[in-house]
Amino acid sequence: MATATLSDLNPAASGTGSLSLGDADFQFLRDFVYQHCGISLGEQKRQLVQGRLLRRLRALGLKDFSGYCELLRRDPDGELGELASVISTNVTSFFREMHHYDLLVEELLPRWLEAKKQSGRLRIWSAGCSTGEEPYALAMVLAEALERTGSKVDARILATDLSPQALETARAGTYAMERMGGVSDARRNRWFLRGEGAYEGLAQVHPRLRELVTIQPLNLLHDWPMRGPFDAIFCRNVVIYFDKPTKQRLFERYAGLLEQGGYLFLGHSESMYGLSDSFELVGRTVYRKRMS
């Protein structure tokens, strides 16, 4: 999946210009980002934030960082998504951490489709979907399972992210061919439309996949409009920079939206150890909601 992580870019390469991010403004930004995004900005990130935000200041026509902080005070919700895009780096790819997809294909999807038969509903949530590679990869294996079984189950994938820029790419569903290294040739031929002429080197996801995926903006730390229940939630490489209390709250909220025995998939460097009693580890970064 999708990773929204703070970058370790070389500050010297960030183009800091002549403006400097002062102590008071940086402290405000640290507090704001933690409150609204759950990410702790250490002092070592000051130059990165300064360099990244200079581009945003120019786009908004602001003269200094104090003006930007004032904008956040006046309209925190209106600028939050752009700020998240500025301070985060979306790192993702198709079929990243392939063992998760293998579990879906070989065990979970056949079991769910059989249990739900003709009248059930199946829901998967890609929480932190970034530019869309994860939900579309999920859509491929789901569509294939539906075709293979002839199932009439009402199956959908919800894909959410905070970044407007990432969501714009996800909604377009168009990717450079070099970004599709994780997709087999068979799946490229089946699930992508190749561009020609001015669109040479690009591929767009098949309309069938787009039918399965609903893409919406969502801040994981704010209210959630959906009620569930979900059969599986993918939240991979998203919570790694959250502090312990934020992770604990998030995992309990996930448990509340999952079916009994539903699955939560985390990233390769993430763990739920000591953070929740609602789940049991059943595979490599795969957790199942305990039966109540």
From TrEMBL:
Gene3D superfamilies: Chemotaxis receptor methyltransferase CheR, N-terminal domain (1.10.155.10), Vaccinia Virus protein VP39 (3.40.50.150). PROSITE patterns: CHER (PS50123). Its EC number is 2.1.1.80. It is an enzyme of class 2 (transferase). It comes from the Bacteria. SUPFAM superfamilies: Chemotaxis receptor methyltransferase CheR, N-terminal domain (SSF47757), S-adenosyl-L-methionine-dependent methyltransferases (SSF53335). InterPro entries: Bact_Chemotaxis_MeTrfase, Chemotaxis_MeTrfase_CheR, CheR_C, CheR_MeTrfase, CheR_N, CheR_N_sf, SAM-dependent_MTases_sf. Keywords: Methyltransferase, S-adenosyl-L-methionine, Transferase. It catalyses: L-glutamyl-[protein] + S-adenosyl-L-methionine = [protein]-L-glutamate 5-O-methyl ester + S-adenosyl-L-homocysteine. Residues 14-292 form the CheR-type methyltransferase domain. Pfam families: CheR, CheR_N. The keyword Transferase applies. Coiled coil: none annotated. Methylation of the membrane-bound methyl-accepting chemotaxis proteins (MCP) to form gamma-glutamyl methyl ester residues in MCP. PANTHER family: CHEMOTAXIS PROTEIN METHYLTRANSFERASE. This is Chemotaxis protein methyltransferase. It comes from Dyella flava.
